[in-house]
């Protein structure tokens, strides 16, 4: 390392846990992709995304272990025999083990071996703690806020209204998209461009003569998209945006994690096949009466007051 900047990496040729010989190889730093999360510019060491909540998670685990131990102790407690007062309780002064009584508990038991003044009482316990889930959810909300995760996904708790879940999904997706863009810029794009450069240089990929070289490395990197809570509402929202010119059909398809060209190609093949076999479905806009009437209206010629129909 020079000035804290790595120059070379020493890597294993095989997995260290495989039991093989630990052969290593030096690789120049400019040929390595170091996947790490940093919070400052020019930071050499990566930081875990959970670094801000690790202590809280550890404390939560210890608390749950303590509650589990308390619940097990409470479940092991049975019943007790309450002695009477001194006048009703007689003893011969011999406190040997022979005077100890053992009771085998079974369903429908009738115990008639009580002495005068004695009664059986049950040990009441406040375990399991009824507030454990509330406390844990509060801690998990703090963990979700400190790690850019959603509380519903962290706690596997999907209770709530549509508006609340939609708002949570939108906010958490923004954090996921930031990490996704960072991963594309740090790993995916350099890896793709290096592979394409080597493929073109070696002749594996032959470029057309009319290709614009400036667009050679232009690629669309599609990652996981935001899921839909209510597909009907989401579809209606996309229709409004497309009709208003705020989005395109390709944006709608990509929002579902699909390739627009592939969807259009398969859709056209499907419609052509249905028409060839005389199959009519309401998924074909041409078979929709509302759509066909609207199209007919658009095709009708417009007449003005000065024009007369023949």
Automatic annotation (TrEMBL):
Name the Gene Ontology biological process terms: virion assembly
Spans annotated as Disordered: 251-270, 276-310
* A GO term, aspect molecular function: structural molecule activity
List the Pfam families hit by this protein, alphabetically: Phage_portal_2 (PF05136)
Composition bias type Basic and acidic residues, residue spans: 259-270, 297-310
Q: Which NCBIfam families match?
A: portal_lambda
What is the name of this protein? Phage portal protein, lambda family
């Amino acid at each position: 390392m020079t000035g804290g900047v790595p120059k070379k990496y020493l890597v294993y040729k095989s997995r260290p846990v495989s039991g093989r010989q630990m052969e290593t190889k030096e690789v120049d730093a400019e040929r390595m992709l170091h996947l790490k999360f940093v919070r400052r510019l020019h930071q050499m060491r990566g930081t875990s995304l959970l670094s801000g909540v690790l202590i809280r998670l550890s404390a939560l685990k210890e608390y749950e272990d303590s509650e589990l131990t308390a619940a097990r102790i409470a479940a092991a407690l049975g019943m007790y025999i309450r002695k009477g007062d001194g006048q009703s309780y007689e003893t011969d002064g011999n406190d040997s083990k022979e005077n100890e009584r053992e009771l085998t508990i079974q369903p429908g038991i009738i115990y008639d071996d009580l002495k005068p003044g004695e009664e059986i009482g049950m040990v009441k316990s406040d375990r399991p703690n009824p507030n454990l889930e509330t406390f844990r959810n509060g801690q998990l909300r703090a963990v979700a806020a400190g790690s850019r995760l959603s509380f519903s996904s962290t706690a596997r708790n999907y209770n709530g209204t549509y508006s609340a879940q939609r708002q949570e999904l939108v906010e958490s997706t923004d954090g996921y998209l930031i990490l996704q863009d960072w991963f594309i810029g740090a790993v995916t794009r350099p890896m793709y461009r290096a592979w394409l450069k080597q493929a073109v240089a070696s002749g594996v990929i032959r470029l057309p003569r009319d290709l614009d070289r400036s667009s050679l490395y232009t690629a669309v990197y599609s990652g996981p998209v935001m899921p839909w809570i209510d597909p009907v509402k989401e579809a209606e929202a996309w229709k409004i945006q497309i009709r208003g010119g705020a989005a395109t059909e390709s944006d709608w398809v990509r929002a579902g994690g699909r390739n627009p060209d592939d969807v259009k190609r398969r859709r056209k093949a499907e419609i052509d096949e249905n028409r060839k076999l005389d199959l009519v479905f309401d998924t074909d806009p041409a078979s929709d009466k509302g759509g066909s009437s609207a199209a007919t209206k658009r095709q009708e010629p417009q007449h003005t007051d000065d024009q007369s129909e023949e």
